[in-house]
Design brief:
Length: 509
């Protein structure tokens, strides 16, 4: 939902309802020129070094089926070590599509992924949730469901990731509960974990039936996505390799994301860490194309540094920013849509959290990322998603969206009539040009407060963090799910009941 639609929601709760304007936060294009961290010859040297890593040093692949595909594609396999030649990688990059669509429940929720497009996701994959009312705690299905509802309520968030882990649901049943929440509470592009073929198959079948598709229709388009993290340095483990194969063969999108922290599981320099990240991404992308040429796949990186005293991840740092810029240069070299990430290592939603998140976000924007994950809500380097931080970060994302969705100035916008109307030393508050636009023209802050200090203190002086609490509570209390077919909801729940009775699907390691 757009900011103006939320103004309408507040109108239903008592405030004056404002006119709506048409703002498309769904179809965003990055308006910022891509920024380079390295010269093009250094990017080429990094790319060639990554190919040398794959060809000469090799990558460990734990899944026999994946090693078989690599061998059939021309790679040299020695036990679990796979040495992938340049020609095999180049052939895979030639078949990987530079542009593709991932489908939502409705056409206006589809997302087109290609260089120059811009898609946001909130923070994902955290074991804990936190808010000012209930405190920090292990994530529950209730937390996950509420975060899905918040994600659904903002047009600037385009995909539904695995926001927090519902630890009150056993692992062999968790994917049912999460998929049910996403499909019934949202109409956006859903996520499916790669935790073994049985769970992936369940996810595909639930989405296929809920969307009313045949097998052929499901396989002809991408209807969901997964995140594939390599085990740095230089390992593709069994569930990740199987996920790459399963998603590729089903025509569903994989976002390949090596997680390389400088000084820990990657060299301590940006160039060294990105060489490793690029090599691992190329290996995973190659596996998708060996499984099914033309399978949709996103290049990705999650590279930052660690605190060398404690080993804890750090985000929103100069190294994180620089690594994002380098990843953008590499993605443009490959011509593939790509995923980058924001985030924060702060423990609470404070000034440190805001600064780290915004600096990380700008690294992604100036790098030209197609998908920016962890753009709202992430704390503690991914250990926690905060309800209040989702809201305060959305303030920034919607500022960015206003820039991306802007329109060229018309003759009327130049305002010659207003300039003629207002006398010297006058004001434009009551000018006809202003009155025609003031309710529909301008960005309205979500948690920011532009009143003067005296007015602010008279109203109780709530800071942004506490205002955010009221906003997310109001969204959850008044949430109305999309109007899905009741028969499909019943069918989804029947499927889950049947599979649960059959024992579910334990994750594979």
């Amino acid at each position: 939902m757009t900011r103006i639609e939320r103004r309408g929601r507040r109108g239903r709760t008592g405030a004056a309802d404002a006119p709506r304007r048409k703002v498309n936060y769904h179809d965003l294009r990055n308006p910022f020129p891509a920024m380079n961290a390295f010269t093009e010859d250094r990017i080429e040297a990094l790319h060639q070094a990554s190919l040398t890593v794959l060809e000469e040093i090799g990558i460990k692949v734990l899944l026999p089926e994946a090693r078989k595909l690599f061998r059939q594609g021309g790679a040299r396999v020695e036990g679990e070590m796979v040495h992938i030649g340049r020609e095999t990688v180049e052939a895979a990059l030639a078949s990987a599509p530079p542009s593709f669509t991932v489908k939502g429940a409705r056409p206006d929720k589809d997302i087109l992924l290609e260089l120059g497009r811009l898609v946001f996701q909130p923070g994902a994959g955290a074991p804990h949730a936190t808010d000012l009312v209930r405190g920090r705690r292990p994530g529950t299905l209730g937390d996950f469901r509420e975060m899905v509802q918040i994600t659904q309520s903002f047009d600037v968030l385009h995909m539904v990731p695995p926001l927090v882990e519902p630890q009150d649901i056993p692992m062999h049943l968790r994917h049912y509960a999460m998929t049910e929440a996403v499909l019934t509470q949202s109409d956006k592009v859903p996520f499916v974990y790669s935790r073994g073929t049985p769970q992936v198959r369940d996810g595909f079948e639930m989405i296929r039936d809920f969307r009313g598709l045949s097998d052929d229709e499901f396989h002809a388009q991408s209807w969901c996505y997964t995140i594939i993290n390599t085990n740095s340095p230089r390992v593709i483990d069994m569930p990740m390799a199987q996920g790459l194969i399963d998603f590729a063969r089903a025509g569903q999108m994989s976002i390949v994301t090596p997680f390389t922290l400088m000084g820990a599981m990657a060299p301590i320099t940006v160039a060294g860490a990105m060489t490793l990240s690029h090599a691992e991404a190329l290996a995973a992308i190659t596996l998708t194309q060996l499984a099914r040429p033309g399978a949709p796949v996103c290049y990705g990186t999650f590279t930052s540094n660690v605190d060398m005293k404690s080993g804890a991840p750090a985000f929103g740092t100069p190294e994180h920013f620089t690594a994002s810029l380098v990843a953008g240069q590499l993605a443009r070299k490959l011509g593939l849509p790509w995923r980058c990430a924001g985030g924060s290592a702060a423990n609470i939603n404070d000034a440190q959290a805001a600064n780290e998140s915004q600096f990380g976000l700008w690294g992604c924007l100036l790098a030209g990322a197609s998908v920016i994950i962890h753009s709202a809500g992430w704390l503690e380097g991914g250990l926690t998603v905060s309800f209040e931080k989702i809201i305060t970060d959305l303030e920034v994302l919607q500022m960015v969206a206003e820039l991306c969705a802007g329109t060229p100035a018309t003759d009327a916008d130049i305002a010659l009539d207003a300039l003629r109307e207002v006398a010297p030393s006058g004001h434009f508050f009551g000018a006809a040009h202003t009155m025609e636009r003031y309710q529909t023209q301008f960005y309205e802050p979500l948690v920011g407060d532009w009143s003067n200090f005296g007015t602010w203190t008279e109203r109780g002086a709530f800071d942004a963090n506490h205002r955010a609490t009221g906003i997310w509570q109001n969204i959850v209390a008044n949430f109305e799910p999309p109007a899905h077919d009741p028969d499909r909801i019943d069918g989804l729940r029947d499927y889950i009941a049947r599979r649960t009775a059959e024992g579910g699907a334990p994750p594979e390691s």
